[in-house]
Protein backbone atom coordinates (compact mmCIF):
# COMPACT_ATOMS: atom_id res chain seq x y z
CA UNK A 1 0.00 0.00 0.00
CA UNK A 2 1.13 3.57 -0.51
CA UNK A 3 0.57 6.50 1.84
CA UNK A 4 -1.93 8.05 -0.57
CA UNK A 5 -3.89 4.79 -0.87
CA UNK A 6 -4.16 4.67 2.93
CA UNK A 7 -5.29 8.30 3.16
CA UNK A 8 -7.90 7.75 0.43
CA UNK A 9 -9.25 4.44 1.79
CA UNK A 10 -8.98 4.54 5.60
CA UNK A 11 -12.22 5.19 7.47
CA UNK A 12 -12.89 6.18 11.07
CA UNK A 13 -13.96 3.34 13.35
CA UNK A 14 -15.79 2.95 16.64
CA UNK A 15 -14.76 0.74 19.54
CA UNK A 16 -16.81 -0.17 22.57
CA UNK A 17 -14.88 -0.12 25.84
CA UNK A 18 -16.88 -0.93 29.00
CA UNK A 19 -20.10 0.10 27.16
CA UNK A 20 -18.55 3.44 26.07
CA UNK A 21 -18.40 4.09 22.32
CA UNK A 22 -15.11 5.72 21.32
CA UNK A 23 -14.22 6.92 17.81
CA UNK A 24 -10.80 6.74 16.19
CA UNK A 25 -9.77 8.60 13.04
CA UNK A 26 -7.11 7.91 10.38
CA UNK A 27 -3.96 9.97 10.70
CA UNK A 28 -0.26 10.21 10.00
CA UNK A 29 1.75 10.18 13.23
CA UNK A 30 4.83 12.37 13.76
CA UNK A 31 6.93 9.22 13.29
CA UNK A 32 5.62 8.97 9.72
CA UNK A 33 3.61 5.83 10.45
CA UNK A 34 -0.03 5.67 9.41
CA UNK A 35 -2.89 4.47 11.55
CA UNK A 36 -5.78 5.65 13.72
CA UNK A 37 -6.00 7.81 16.81
CA UNK A 38 -8.93 8.46 19.12
CA UNK A 39 -10.09 8.59 22.67
CA UNK A 40 -11.95 10.58 25.23
CA UNK A 41 -13.31 10.43 28.74
CA UNK A 42 -15.20 7.26 29.68
CA UNK A 43 -16.91 5.70 32.67
CA UNK A 44 -15.21 2.49 33.84
CA UNK A 45 -16.95 0.10 36.26
CA UNK A 46 -14.76 -1.01 39.15
CA UNK A 47 -16.58 -3.15 41.70
CA UNK A 48 -19.82 -1.32 42.60
CA UNK A 49 -18.50 2.08 41.48
CA UNK A 50 -17.97 3.83 38.16
CA UNK A 51 -14.79 5.83 37.71
CA UNK A 52 -14.22 8.65 35.22
CA UNK A 53 -11.15 7.86 33.10
CA UNK A 54 -9.23 9.18 30.10
CA UNK A 55 -8.88 6.69 27.23
CA UNK A 56 -6.45 6.93 24.31
CA UNK A 57 -6.28 4.67 21.26
CA UNK A 58 -3.24 4.46 18.98
CA UNK A 59 -3.53 1.86 16.24
CA UNK A 60 -0.37 1.94 14.11
CA UNK A 61 0.21 0.06 10.87
CA UNK A 62 3.59 -1.61 11.31
CA UNK A 63 6.07 -0.53 8.63
CA UNK A 64 3.78 2.14 7.16
CA UNK A 65 6.41 4.87 7.36
CA UNK A 66 8.37 2.83 4.81
CA UNK A 67 5.53 2.79 2.26
CA UNK A 68 6.12 3.98 -1.28
CA UNK A 69 5.72 7.73 -1.55
CA UNK A 70 7.11 8.63 1.89
CA UNK A 71 10.57 9.75 0.73
CA UNK A 72 9.04 11.65 -2.21
CA UNK A 73 6.75 13.59 0.16
CA UNK A 74 9.65 14.49 2.48
CA UNK A 75 11.79 15.76 -0.43
CA UNK A 76 8.93 17.96 -1.69
CA UNK A 77 8.57 19.58 1.77
CA UNK A 78 12.27 20.56 1.96
Question: Can you put this structure into words, describing what you see?
Answer:
This protein is of the alpha+beta class. The protein has one domain (3-71). It has 2 helices and 4 strands; from the N terminus they run αββββα. The chain has a 4-stranded antiparallel β-sheet. A hairpin with a 2-residue loop joins strand 1 (13-17) and strand 2 (20-28).
Quick recap:
The protein has 2 helices and 4 strands; from the N terminus they run H-E-E-E-E-H. The chain has helices at 3-9, 70-77, and strands at 13-17, 20-28, 34-46, 49-60.
Give the distance, in angstroms, between the N- and C-terminal Cα atoms: 24 Å
Strand order of the main beta sheet, please? 1-2-3-4
Principal-axes geometry comes out as: elongated
Q: Which class do the helix and strand fractions yield?
A: alpha+beta
Biggest sheet features: 4 strands, antiparallel
The tally of helices reads: 2
Kindly estimate the percentage of residues that lie in beta strands according to DSSP. Answer: over 45%
Number of domains: 1
Question: How do the helices and strands follow one another from N- to C-terminus?
Answer: HEEEEH
Number of distinct beta strands: 4
**Low-confidence stretches at least 5 residues in length (pLDDT < 50)?**
none
Q: Considering DSSP H and I runs of 4 or more, what fraction of the residues is helical?
A: 10-25%
Average of the residue pLDDT scores: 89
Please give the radius of gyration in angstroms.
16 Å
